[in-house]
Fold this sequence. Notes:
Chains A, B, C, D: Its EC number is 4.3.1.12. Chain A is α/β, with parallel strands linked by helices.
Amino acid sequence: MTVSREVELEGHIIDSGMMQSCFGIIMDLGGSFSVQEFDIGRHKDEESYARMLVEADDEDQLQSIVHELHQHGVNPSDPKDATLVPAPDDQVVPHGFYSTTNHPTYIRHDGEWIEVEDMEMDCAVVVEDGDSPRAYTKVLNAIEEGDLVVTDETGIKVQPPERPRDSGGAFGFMQGGVSSERPSESTIRKIANAIEETKKEGGKVMAVCGPALIHSGAREDLARLVREGYVDMLSAGNGFAVHDIERDIYGTSLGMDTESLDHPRHGHKHHIYTISEVIREGGIEEAVESGTIESGVMYECIDNDRPFVLAGSIRDDGPLPDTITDAVEAQNAIREQAHEADMVLMLSTLLHSVAVGNCLPSTTRVVCVDINPATVTQLLDRGSAQAVGMVTDIGTFVPILAEQLLSED
Amino acid sequence: MTVSREVELEGHIIDSGMMQSCFGIIMDLGGSFSVQEFDIGRHKDEESYARMLVEADDEDQLQSIVHELHQHGVNPSDPKDATLVPAPDDQVVPHGFYSTTNHPTYIRHDGEWIEVEDMEMDCAVVVEDGDSPRAYTKVLNAIEEGDLVVTDETGIKVQPPERPRDSGGAFGFMQGGVSSERPSESTIRKIANAIEETKKEGGKVMAVCGPALIHSGAREDLARLVREGYVDMLSAGNGFAVHDIERDIYGTSLGMDTESLDHPRHGHKHHIYTISEVIREGGIEEAVESGTIESGVMYECIDNDRPFVLAGSIRDDGPLPDTITDAVEAQNAIREQAHEADMVLMLSTLLHSVAVGNCLPSTTRVVCVDINPATVTQLLDRGSAQAVGMVTDIGTFVPILAEQLLSED
Amino acid sequence: MTVSREVELEGHIIDSGMMQSCFGIIMDLGGSFSVQEFDIGRHKDEESYARMLVEADDEDQLQSIVHELHQHGVNPSDPKDATLVPAPDDQVVPHGFYSTTNHPTYIRHDGEWIEVEDMEMDCAVVVEDGDSPRAYTKVLNAIEEGDLVVTDETGIKVQPPERPRDSGGAFGFMQGGVSSERPSESTIRKIANAIEETKKEGGKVMAVCGPALIHSGAREDLARLVREGYVDMLSAGNGFAVHDIERDIYGTSLGMDTESLDHPRHGHKHHIYTISEVIREGGIEEAVESGTIESGVMYECIDNDRPFVLAGSIRDDGPLPDTITDAVEAQNAIREQAHEADMVLMLSTLLHSVAVGNCLPSTTRVVCVDINPATVTQLLDRGSAQAVGMVTDIGTFVPILAEQLLSED
Amino acid sequence: MTVSREVELEGHIIDSGMMQSCFGIIMDLGGSFSVQEFDIGRHKDEESYARMLVEADDEDQLQSIVHELHQHGVNPSDPKDATLVPAPDDQVVPHGFYSTTNHPTYIRHDGEWIEVEDMEMDCAVVVEDGDSPRAYTKVLNAIEEGDLVVTDETGIKVQPPERPRDSGGAFGFMQGGVSSERPSESTIRKIANAIEETKKEGGKVMAVCGPALIHSGAREDLARLVREGYVDMLSAGNGFAVHDIERDIYGTSLGMDTESLDHPRHGHKHHIYTISEVIREGGIEEAVESGTIESGVMYECIDNDRPFVLAGSIRDDGPLPDTITDAVEAQNAIREQAHEADMVLMLSTLLHSVAVGNCLPSTTRVVCVDINPATVTQLLDRGSAQAVGMVTDIGTFVPILAEQLLSED
């Protein structure tokens, strides 16, 4: 026996690859299809529309196909209201709850499509009933008993952003995925343009930074970008802040003078001493106020009111009093920041970039920079449609970026 | 004006490279030396002894040189008692506190040398006075007001383990650092021998595991090693446990059937559903008891009473109820485990391997396995003298290791 | 003023991504299009057909678009005969000559479509007129004065192979590109199946090998695969052969005993001595016949009449008398071998794999194995539609592959 | 029965690690030793001297130990004349011939020590008898019947360069091996200083370049360095020259405009067309003279009389008429260039860097730059004592280097 369901796609479904993905999903999962209607956009600006019948051997297989199609923006053509089931307990979701993608999503409720707020992947969707009903994402551990959680696949519409191929503007270049083989200086110029465009539009730029940025000598230039307002928010770990402050207090990063390259052996002592000094003061802000910290990225954040989140990890020394040691609390702080960002620079850190990336909707512009191609690929695979990757040395990237941004003023 | 201090070295100081390091440190830091006495071991089994005067331009430079020499096992020849200063507040160490290496260390107290317990790097040393005085390490955030903390460099003796070059036995091969260019199967055989020798000596083997181990299909073989007692303890993250359990409940890892390679698109849903199921049960042990989890690495840990630590991170989904989300708590749990381990296998995880490595004395045997040479190098650089690295595919490494260990029984 | 040309696509043009590529090319190059006719395959087995008008600002732009479309299998809908221009001199092609892809290609001559023989990319196409006209590729340096060379874009049809998604059989898994995150043992089993299927169909398997294969201890297992007929041809460099023979004569590879891991210091002397011994004998075959070489990959090639090509490079020591030192001659030898191969295993060598890959039509099955993901990606990007990549350790890959192939007999 | 030989070491034998290596070699190879005399330098500028008796179980083992010690600068204390045996045939060396290191080497002949000319590793040493006898290296394939070849280990003295730790000057920083974790801009400044110092001393700088340099947009800056005389010689492959010239003729590199990043799809056609154009002209010099090539690295080489070697490889398209296709001929051309270089910049090419590195004595200054740490490590391991490595993006490295060199004028 065969079961089937009718689905439809619309938009730039060929150009964006959606149609191809759709065919691929059905066949990979062992189903088949028949195309019922197909209106192709005749010109490059016209949208296309397709309606097709998906067939599978049994209901399980069909659901699995329809689920996958969903994630890629293919929706059932006979929309019903979403199924809502109350959460049986705190942190416990109903069976078969709908797990989100990071794409803009709509829930059908009382015959109306409501946009889901705070889009983020791997969350449940909770609907608040009432006169003006709302839908928003909740991570599993934030679910409260009685929350009305969307289950199954019906009444849900996902809209993956399309990649308009010939878009002009600074973000045009951001359509191409990893640009490891692209000319380095020209690519950095494009990224500088994208930052400027974001700022002109009143957007916020967030930098996610790993300690390699300090070791590679890019600290002073990042500090200038913070001071001059090209970086509005910072997300990093304990290590980044300690290395940055060590350079201020002791003139070294992990014991090496990053200017003269002298004395590479002073070593770890400065690192742990730096932590101890900041603990003694009570925190980074206190240490800035007392004059213990007089320069650097963290200094500029404090001095210019750029909010920062320092998330703890099990490899931290110390940690600093500012570091949020609980992973769930840290995720919440990261989430709040991420939802405000219009453009995110991920600078030589896998852990923090993944954590931030997990909280971003697919509509946020992302630039990933790392010297390890595997890191860049891994970050881009998580899937912002507006993400671009660059494989380069962070120690030369930041100075060139800063020169292009700051000399253009 | 010149200042100077007399230091001495003993042991296999040439063969182990200690003498060379010592000369290098002095010159790198701008000092000079004159050798006062030098007795070289005439035969390969004899130890050598050197006494020399280190000279520097000022006291600061001298201290910095003597500090570095210390870390490498060069000690002042005129030992005095260690300087003890009470901690001024909780989590606040006295100025100039001594920050530990991971080598066996002794503190001179009332004219006697006391061995420091729980050696671990980047800690303070606290001395407990009394009839039988003790000295032990404390991480910064565990310091309590009034703790007697060792400061400065006097009265401290560090003994980096030597690498006896022609040592026989299974660990002989472990002297060579990264073995990325060594024959793969033969190297795995050596590692198998080292595990067997550790078990025969009554030692404990700890496995530190990343999620790639599950994705690459090595789960069943690792589960067998846990069941058969070749792995006594497990240290991992939330992701590892979720992937392992997903394979049990849904037959997939991140949505792919690791046997048939079928259905590569089921995707993320299984991952988040797995977490939800375990939360519903209350934890992994409960899920094993209820029959929800029937196989795999976590199952074998529960079924065979092998303790495990799941440390949280900011990139976790969920997390599982068993995951310790606070980084400091998680470090304490890792620390306790690490101090009990006699041999540690670090299997395709950088974050957790660094966290465990931070807690290990340099005398613990360590094997690092990763397909990324940079990861192996970074782990070995942290410096266990008994560490060996292997650049290989974890998905073929674990099966071949398991076959060699289990077929030999 | 606008210029335009009508083109058509047929086959699985959506599923294979051809339609998406086509839209992308037109827009990337600044053109536009209008779709004139579109018949979509209603079921997964049905082919589709599209006819569209490509528009550009001027003839140059149009030609550049049509050229690119060509490479992806989009052909003008009003075919004319190909333009033939005689080569003005040896090694000199006419202006505007057609440079080939590696896809099956047809030339229209006297109103008939002739298939181009010996397809290979970056070549010229030469037509031999006469009663039964032929068309074949020639590399630039083989062009002779007067050769009739195809120029411009007219009268040429390219057919990139489609990736039939639900193909059964052993090669089904080969549709997925790089499988670095796939389960290792299961993937090797699939590759073993594909080799067996190739052999059953009477096909020939070619191994392209780098010296790392010997260093990593996989020599004996590859030698068995040659002996048992799973490898029919070998393509390698001077270094591979020398390391293989060194292991036979001196029991070492670059001075290390690959079994016992003993004596890692004997060093380079064995390498250069091995070369000297083979030169003394006059070549590998002579050294096998005289009993100087008694085992290994090269031995089995000689003993079982498996043809091999040893191509020289500027980093070679020696070289051996069997090594072809001229790059053009070596390419010709590689070309001849490559055209006979039905399946190619590229084993841990970038240089030789690229050289062989350059000579392969896109219809040949290719498996690339390397521990460096960048190497695998680079090889797959060159574009066999039937290529699959695996990121793993060659030193564990070959033994597991050999066990699966040889124990199944 | 035990056999023994007396050997001696002198110089900075502890600081340079020679003493440690020596002890290690003896023990690794199963021998033992007794130190007969040891005079340690009391101050950092004083040299040390050691004389010791090496013991082994049999003559074979002893020879193997003494051979290894040799390579590291430990010489027998009872020097005899070197053993000379005539080569039995062209390209055939006598049994037991001495295979060279890349260190300065002396041959004892008629009681006198003669320095070996053209030092290079893996060669034979040929002595020309007569009134003023000479000794020089010959690669195996250059040996002629009757050449007097040095065999065995007697009468040979090797002097590995020491690494004077506190050397001032621009090359001081070059003592530290791979500097992947060093601050990028500061390290580039040090390299710029080293180039300037080399030029001031009247030395010659050679650049070894891979095609990635062009793709990454660094072409114009390298061309300026050639024009301004900071690069005196170029060693590259066919691909580098073609990409460089393609950029001049078509404004693209592999089809991409490296300035605007536009039109990434024009593709391979430009590459093969470029080759065809240069073949048509007869060569690069002819194409420069005719005005076909008007800018770029190759143009500046021709225009400023900077000699270049283009060495062929089996992956070349074309090749250009200037490319030396025979590997042995190409090696000879590289060898000649390499022997004239005082400083070598190896820029993002493994193949050509290894080929050049093979011809360099260990006294030539070498800087290796690549984004892949494995490439840098592999090059440094070949062992110039004055080699320094940097892991960075060639596309940002060359512009920053050029700016530092050219703006300082």
